[in-house]
């Protein structure tokens, strides 16, 4: 069988101090591969065994870029079947996308010393244009297939949120909005259903995005949860005919802006009493009482609460089992943080296609994780959506003061 001892003295004699760790790493990985192949073959090198299933057939060279430098490995080949070591498995889609974006920036002539340092930190020693093109093509095909896939069935709940990224455009650096859409279907399963890049959050931008979701099969939307954007509210009314839920967390920030910082805690506690009520009717009653109490001291806060009442409390008319996840865009917060974490490595994207490549890869992998998790919402509550027990909320009112 394969000798599993590392001839340290021999390795030290063959290489200098600077290459010692790299040589050790090469030897360890080679031993791992030889042991794996022994198991597949059923016998060691030059060993006779009745359990042998195939024979070795030489080696093929393969390099592995690491922080220790480039490791030169020899992957064993078999006469029948194939062997490929697990530690050389292709990078995850999102890691490929990150490499591709950095390489693309380098080739496009927009790289800086920071990009160079990033490339080296990722263990890369050179950049080939043909390799970049091949890598980008593979990623783009998978990401576009994911983002353009048909959507089947009904999707009662839809969350929308935007994160801003920097991109080069005509020699300038501008901010663009990356809109991410997450929906839950009638089986209680959560999926990422869309990504859209645009220069602003005006109504045409939102309408185009929502129409694209509808064309792909997004139907049965009853509640859309988002921050307060006038363009989005108008688009929801025209395209989806759904109820709009104003993010409760964002509303609290907007409301407390009318109050001195020293009073924020007291005012926030008063408003939160509304959200502790058991149903929509009780919540509405307490909301108006709190608004009247605060109006005497802060008239603008009282007016803000009057305007936002129906939008902030819309979720209270939906099944109680679902309300904890319907009142805000918090379910998207963790996803947005992951997108920003990956995007911060790049800093400034060379073009919008590179944004879709990287962010789309992050969303693709996150969506795969969603499919392995338990149901995001109880299916019993979904049945209640089809019954008349859900109170009818007032039609969406487009008001000029929503923040």
From TrEMBL:
GO molecular function, one term: DNA binding
Keywords: DNA recombination, DNA-binding, Transposable element, Transposition
InterPro entries reported in the protein's UniProt record: Transposase_mutator
GO biological process, one term: DNA transposition
Highest rank taxon of the organism: Bacteria
DNA-binding keyword on record: yes
Function: Required for the transposition of the insertion element.
Homology family: Belongs to the transposase mutator family.
Protein name, UniProt field: Mutator family transposase
Species this protein is from: Sphingobium limneticum
């Amino acid at each position: 069988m394969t000798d599993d001892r590392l001839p340290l003295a021999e390795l030290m004699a063959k290489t200098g101090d600077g290459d010692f760790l790299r040589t050790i790493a090469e030897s360890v990985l080679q031993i791992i591969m030889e042991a794996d192949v022994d198991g597949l073959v059923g016998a060691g090198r030059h060993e006779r065994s009745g359990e042998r299933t195939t024979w070795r057939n030489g080696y093929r060279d393969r390099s592995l870029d690491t922080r220790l430098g480039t490791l030169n490995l020899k992957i064993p080949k078999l006469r029948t079947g194939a062997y490929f070591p697990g530690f050389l498995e292709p990078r995850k889609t999102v890691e490929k996308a990150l490499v591709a974006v950095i390489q693309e920036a380098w080739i496009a002539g927009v790289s800086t010393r920071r990009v160079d340092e990033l490339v080296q930190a990722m263990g890369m020693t050179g950049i080939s244009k043909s390799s970049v093109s091949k890598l980008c093509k593979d990623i783009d095909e998978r990401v576009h297939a994911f983002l353009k896939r048909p959507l089947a069935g009904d999707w009662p709940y839809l969350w929308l949120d935007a994160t801003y990224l920097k991109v080069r455009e005509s020699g300038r650096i501008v901010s663009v909005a990356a809109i991410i859409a997450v929906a839950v279907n009638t089986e209680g399963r959560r999926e990422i259903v869309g990504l859209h890049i645009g220069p602003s959050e005006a109504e045409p931008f939102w309408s185009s995005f929502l129409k694209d979701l509808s064309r792909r099969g997004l139907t049965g939307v009853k509640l859309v949860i988002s921050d307060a954007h006038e363009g989005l509210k108008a688009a929801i009314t025209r395209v989806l005919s759904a109820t709009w839920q104003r993010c409760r967390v964002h509303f609290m920030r907007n409301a407390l802006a009318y109050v001195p910082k020293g009073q924020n805690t007291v005012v926030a506690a008063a408003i939160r009493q509304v959200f502790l009520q058991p149903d929509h009717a009780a919540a509405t009653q307490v909301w108006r009482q709190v608004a009247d109490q605060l109006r005497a001291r802060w008239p603008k806060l009282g007016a803000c609460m009057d305007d936002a009442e129906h939008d902030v409390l819309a979720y209270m008319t939906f099944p109680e089992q679902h309300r904890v996840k319907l009142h805000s865009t918090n379910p998207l917060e963790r996803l947005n943080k992951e997108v920003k974490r990956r995007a911060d490595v790049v800093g400034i994207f060379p073009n919008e296609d590179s944004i879709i490549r990287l962010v789309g890869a992050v969303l693709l992998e996150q969506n795969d994780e969603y499919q392995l998790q338990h149901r995001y919402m109880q299916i019993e509550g979904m049945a209640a959506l089809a019954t008349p027990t859900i109170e009818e909320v007032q039609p969406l009112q487009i008001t000029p003061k929503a923040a």
